[in-house]
């Protein structure tokens, strides 16, 4: 049982909604396994009060904090420094507080996603064409890391077209000229793609059962990835599986990005296998 004392370093996740998140159990299991006097908990908030909360964390016993939808882009306004890759991505999911009280933004989503995609699905990024639903924080990290590692082409769409266009422009300027905007609801580019990504959040939380893509556009030779892991199979993945496609959910992405967060907050190697076991135990309980 974790004991909280005056020396306990705190971490909180800022986002909305957070009911679907397994991050606290995974992180706290990691701290326990590594012998770290830390505790991770949730703070539900959207952009409206984000600045006030972030400023308050400066003066409390925090090692840093984590960030998720819809705050990954907005949070940059309240940070003192950005890691170079985070700056290029324009999105942060991990903030480290230095002993002097500075807040430095990083992005481990991209690292987690790339590790899961290459190690668990065997994807050779530099040989593939990608289609991504969602140009927000998760989409930014995923598409940016793909461009960084030499993706042949990345088509990006979002219900909020300005969001997708902004991401396309940033990737083409900061990484490589491989991104192309696709109007929302236009599926004409899908047939040319090897990997289809759902980073939109559709299918989780309040939108369980929904999908951004009608299944008639899915092809068996494609891989379908959803950044969501609760539910373990969103409608997007269920439809893809029914069409004979390979599927991968966001569990590995969450695991590897969480391990990278621990290493940034503590400077110590994360106990990846203990964290994986906890995530799998949570999923087993949900069945």
What does this structure look like?
Helix content is 36%, strand content 19%. The two termini are 25 Å apart. The protein has nine helices and twelve strands. The protein folds into two domains: 7-105 and 250-284, 3-Layer(aba) Sandwich (Rossmann fold); 108-247, NAD(P)-binding Rossmann-like Domain (Rossmann fold), CATH 3.40.50. It has a six-stranded mixed beta sheet. A six-stranded parallel beta sheet has the order 9-8-7-10-11-12, sandwiched between helices. The longest helix is centred in the C-terminal third of the chain and has 16 residues, at 251-266. It has 287 residues and is of the alpha/beta class. The model has no long low-confidence stretch (mean pLDDT 95). Involved in the biosynthesis of the chorismate, which leads to the biosynthesis of aromatic amino acids. Catalyzes the reversible NADPH linked reduction of 3-dehydroshikimate (DHSA) to yield shikimate (SA).
């Amino acid at each position: 049982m974790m004991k909280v004392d005056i020396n306990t370093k705190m971490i909180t996740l800022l986002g909305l909604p957070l009911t679907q998140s397994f991050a606290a159990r995974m992180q706290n299991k990691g701290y326990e396994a590594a012998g770290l006097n830390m505790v991770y908990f949730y703070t539900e908030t959207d952009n409206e009060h984000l600045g006030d909360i972030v400023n308050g964390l400066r003066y409390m016993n925090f090692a840093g904090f984590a960030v998720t939808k819809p705050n990954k882009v907005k949070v940059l306004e309240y940070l003192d420094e950005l890691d170079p890759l985070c700056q290029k991505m324009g999105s942060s999911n991990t903030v480290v507080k230095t002993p002097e009280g500075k807040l430095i933004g990083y992005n481990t989503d991209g690292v987690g996603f790339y590790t899961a995609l290459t190690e668990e699905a065997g994807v050779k990024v530099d040989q593939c064409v990608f289609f991504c639903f969602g140009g927000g924080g998760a989409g930014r990290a995923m598409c940016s890391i793909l461009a960084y590692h030499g993706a042949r082409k990345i088509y990006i769409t979002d219900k909020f077209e300005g969001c997708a266009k902004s991401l396309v422009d940033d990737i083409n300027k900061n990484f490589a000229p491989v991104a192309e905007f696709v109007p929302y609801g236009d599926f004409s580019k899908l047939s040319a793609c090897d990997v289809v990504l759902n980073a939109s959040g559709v299918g989780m939380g309040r939108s369980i059962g929904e999908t951004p893509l009608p299944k008639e556009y899915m092809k068996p030779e494609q891989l379908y990835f959803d950044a969501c892991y609760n539910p373990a199979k969103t409608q997007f993945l269920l439809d893809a599986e029914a069409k004979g496609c390979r599927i991968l959910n966001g569990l590995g992405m969450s695991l590897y990005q969480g391990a990278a967060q621990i290493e940034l907050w503590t400077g110590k190697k994360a106990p990846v296998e203990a964290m994986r076991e906890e995530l799998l135990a949570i999923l087993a309980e949900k069945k």
